[in-house]
Design brief:
By secondary structure, this protein is an all-alpha fold. It is 68% helix and 0% strand. It has one domain.
Length: 372
């Protein structure tokens, strides 16, 4: 099988919609749980944390697809090129926002931060105590992705060298099943004993929500879809006509996940909520890349632009919300007003545009000098 020379995502415009959707729901979820907000937001944004899982599924699919395509073509996977690409895509704007948090404390949505070394080593999500390290806490998901970027290509190269690629699905299955055991053990050992106490919520987030072992399912869903597309072309061809049905099924699964997660921080949510959410997100990704899906042909400048800005929005949005509510607009509207929310959105978009134009784009251009 010959791999196309055109960029992998050239025809996957539906993924732009999903990426824009993901940042949209995450933004308003954080607005809901961390900042003053209009009352109506509680009825539409409380399930918005699933946007992070959608990002995981998208990352798993896109990164795995790029690497699997090289394997299918018989090309060598260059760790140098892979890590250079990831560095120039992720690190420059991350370091800028990290600098803002540490150099200008007035910008922080919360004064407490994890130690700098945990941000620089992308281990902030491990042992993250929300009561003492809640500033820039949303970088936890970036830690999960960076750990994935570090380990996945190494595992793939190893399986190829050992001629175990055909059995690698067993590793994916083992990691998926191990997530149940890991979350069960974490719940039973570090969360359940504190139920009914003031620190229960802190332990839930520290041991169930943030750790990598508990949140791999979305990445695994994306990897599985990429494997299907690259290694099973006949099966890929057969499912293309079911794109819209797969999208609908994804929404149904997410609706079921919503029901499972209604009892917040429960055992049922810990054990089954995350896998159901990630199954639903994986189905959305799969549906979006099926040629007969309406999302496959859904081209929109607005969603493409939001998708391009999504990383910058994710990094800067809490600073933008905080600065909007505390300094920029508080003199003429209340923090929980619709107007404040609208102005905060505009501030966030402007800040992300600046980051994208001044940092992301120049470094992506510079990247071409290091990677052919």
């Amino acid at each position: 099988m010959q791999v196309q020379n055109k960029p992998l995502t050239e025809n996957y415009v539906g993924l732009d919609f999903l990426r824009a959707l993901a940042i949209f729901v995450v933004y308003f979820y954080h607005n809901l749980v961390l900042f003053p907000h209009p009352e109506w937001l509680a009825s539409v944004a409380k399930f918005g944390w699933v946007g992070v899982d959608l990002f995981f599924a998208l990352s798993g699919f896109l990164i795995a697809s790029q690497l699997f395509a090289k394997v299918v073509a018989g090309q060598k996977i260059s760790l140098r090129d892979f890590f250079i690409k990831r560095f120039f895509r992720i690190m420059p704007v991350f370091f800028v926002v990290l600098g803002l948090y540490f150099i200008f404390p007035v910008l922080r949505e919360n004064p407490s931060l994890a130690p700098l070394w945990k941000f620089l080593t992308f281990t902030q999500n491990l042992g993250l105590d929300r009561t003492t390290q809640s500033g820039f806490s949303h970088a936890w998901s970036l830690c999960v992705e960076e750990q994935f970027y570090l380990l996945f290509p190494l595992l793939l190269i190893t399986t190829v060298k050992l001629n175990l690629l055909k059995k690698s699905y067993l590793l994916v299955l083992a990691l998926f099943v191990s997530g149940f055991f890991a979350r069960y053990y974490a719940w039973d050992t570090w969360v359940l004993p504190f139920m009914g106490t003031d620190v229960f919520s802190t332990h839930w987030y520290e041991w169930i929500y943030y750790p990598t072992y508990a949140r791999l399912d979305g990445l695994l869903a994306g990897i599985s879809i990429a494997a299907l597309y690259q290694f099973k072309p006949h099966l890929k061809s057969r499912i293309q006509i079911y794109g819209n049905s797969i999208l609908l099924l994804g929404l149904v699964v997410l609706s079921l996940a919503y029901r499972v997660c209604l009892e917040d921080k429960s055992f049922t949510m810990a054990l089954f909520g995350f896998p159901l959410v990630d199954l639903g997100c994986g189905l959305l990704v799969l549906g979006a890349v099926c040629k007969e899906s309406f999302l496959y042909r859904f081209k929109s400048y607005l969603f493409s632009k939001l998708a391009a800005l999504s990383y910058a929005i994710y990094l800067i949005h809490k600073i933008a919300l905080h600065v909007s509510q505390e300094y920029l607009f508080i003199s003429f509207t209340s923090r929980d007003s619709n107007l404040m929310m609208f102005l905060a959105v505009l501030t966030t978009l402007l800040a992300s545009l600046l980051l994208n134009s001044l940092i992301e784009k120049p470094f992506m251009t510079l990247r071409r000098k290091f990677v052919v």
